[in-house]
From TrEMBL:
Residues 95-108 have a biased composition (Low complexity). Residues 137-197 form the Homeobox domain. One of its GO terms (molecular function) is sequence-specific DNA binding. Residues 257-274 have a biased composition (Polar residues). This is STYKc. Residues 139-198 bind DNA. Residues 78-118, 254-283 are annotated as: Disordered. It comes from the Eukaryota. Its main location: nucleus.
Length: 303
DNA sequence: ACCTTAAATGAGTTTACCTCA
DNA sequence: ATTGAGGTAAACTCATTTAAG
């Protein structure tokens, strides 16, 4: 039951791009190595109260989200006042590296990073102390299950930025009573999940494309065969009603398929390679669909 | 037994800093 | 004193794997 819920949450929150874009974003030609650039949907994962979750722990009390999450460690780490709001106010940028460089680009870069790392380690130490207090097994890695609330906050944060800078990581860790390393790992795994899901969607899309193209190809081959057969028996050809989808140009006797060849909106390479004035004049009359002047103009004049 | 996911691990990249010619 | 090249360490991300729940 619990599993089902989590699965559902994940499906909702993975933010798959199933819109009708012709190409899935991950198949686009732009920067394949960059982190996902498609917009994540803004599903609300928090409780029905919107922005805060009530009835945590079954106590029936409603508390602000920030103060109620205390699962894996006691709130012992000295709070860096205003840190959370600082991070909240930080504008999300390109990615972790840019954020990092932005954060460290103001004087004493290394020192600052070390200072941050110091904070990080201090916090981790503080957390670890408590966590290790809770651990009963030595040396065995104790896997904890994140609470629903923790996951919800992490999800919310992930929607805003899929990578964290050290400050954000620290603030989140503090907010959730987790070690910064745990937040980091969660984001890593979350990015991996998103990527996997998107890959599955892309794969499905490509399969469908392949199927429809195969079908289209089969259909066209069949029609070409039929037309060839008709051409071999001219008497029959004269009596035949024209095929529904393919039309023969009376000038060059090449086949045109309105369904797949040029349209004013989507001009494709024409079957014609050289065009006479006659071609241009007759094109309008033999074309099985009304030709826009623009389209006629696109047929080059033979010099 | 199987699935989900937290955590570990290793490779690769970026950045800041240091040394030296 | 300045500068560019090369080396190094730290910090990060991603891919893969392991194993707990």
């Amino acid at each position: 039951m619990m599993m089902m819920m989590e699965k559902e949450d994940l499906a909702l929150s993975l933010g798959l791009n199933t819109s009708t874009n012709y190409f899935p974003p991950s198949l686009s030609l732009v920067s394949p190595s960059s982190s996902p650039s498609w917009p994540m949907p803004s599903h609300r994962l928090l409780g029905p109260s919107g922005g805060s979750i009530s009835n945590v722990g079954g106590a029936g009390e409603t508390r602000p989200l920030l103060t109620m999450i205390g699962v894996n460690r006691a709130p012992s780490v000295a709070a860096t006042a205003g840190k959370v709001s600082d991070v909240e106010e930080e504008e999300e940028e390109g990615g972790a590296s840019s954020l990092n460089s932005a954060a460290s680009s103001v004087g004493g870069k290394r020192a600052e990073r070390h200072a941050l790392a110091g904070d990080d380690h201090d916090a981790e130490r503080a957390c670890f102390r408590v966590v290790s207090d809770e651990e009963d097994g030595e040396g065995s890695r104790k896997k904890l299950r994140l609470s629903k609330d923790q996951s919800a906050v992490l999800e919310e944060s992930f929607k805003k930025h899929s990578t964290l800078n050290p400050k954000q990581k620290l603030a989140l860790a503090e907010q959730l009573n987790l070690r910064p390393r745990q937040v980091e790992v969660w984001f890593q795994n979350r990015r991996a999940r998103t990527k996997l899901k998107q890959t599955e969607v892309d794969c499905e899309f490509l399969k469908k494309c392949c199927e429809s193209l195969t079908e289209e190809n089969r259909r066209l081959q069949k029609e070409v065969q039929e037309l060839r057969a008709l051409k071999l028996s001219p008497q029959l050809y004269m009596q035949m009603t024209p095929p529904t989808t393919l039309t023969m140009c009376p000038s060059c006797e090449r086949v045109s398929n309105p369904a797949t060849t040029s349209s004013p909106a989507n001009p494709q390479p024409s079957v014609h390679r050289q065009y006479s004035n006659h071609d241009r004049q007759t094109a309008a009359s033999w074309a099985p669909f009304p030709l826009e002047p623009l389209f006629l103009d696109s047929i080059p004049q033979r010099s």
